[in-house]
Amino acid sequence: VWRLDASRRDLATPMQGYSDFNIVAERYPNSRYAADARLRMIKLRNMFALHEMDTALYYMRRDAWVSAANRAKYLLETYPQSEYQYDAVALLGAAYTEMGNETLASDARRVLELNDPTHPWLTGDWPKYPWAIRKLNPFAGEKSPTGKRNAERLN
């Protein structure tokens, strides 16, 4: 049927799972389940970061640049090693550019050029929004605006 993106749902249950895996990894570091718990915690952390990224991109589409920048900063502070950290830096650069703060925008561009020189934002090809007809229907359940890159990471 359809593959539902868990990061677009309520995160209470995954957060409880993260807490449970953390208990296993900390209390029983030598058990045969500890390594699997750590791997699952990484996947859950990336899911939480994707949720924050999607929310920040929602704010960006609505021209709420301060809120988008705050979400991106929150993502970087809370999930610093996630797969979406460079997308958050790109979002910060875009938001600061739109707000007219060229100093911070150039800092974000410099950080992105050093850490992920192939990021699509550097060429002006980010974010990928859903095609126009889907944006007209608010009930269409638009796909994640970061496009194909997120689908590849979820697999």
Structural overview:
This protein is mainly alpha-helical and 155 residues long. The protein has 7 helices and no strands. The chain has helices at 12-27, 34-61, 65-78, 85-99, 102-115, 132-136, 148-154. Helix 4 (85-99) runs antiparallel to helix 5 (102-115). It starts with 11 loop residues before the first helix and ends with a helix.
Strand content: under 5%
Radius of gyration, in angstroms, nearest whole number: 17 Å
Q: Please report the total strand number as a whole number.
A: 0
Structural class: mainly alpha
Main β-sheet description = none
Which parts are unreliable, with pLDDT below 50 for 5 consecutive residues or more? 146-151
User: How many helices in DSSP terms?
Assistant: 7
Distance between the termini: 16 Å
- What is the string of SSEs from the N terminus onward? HHHHHHH
As a percent range, the share of helical residues equals 55-70%
Question: Mean of the pLDDT scores?
Answer: 86
Label the overall shape. elongated
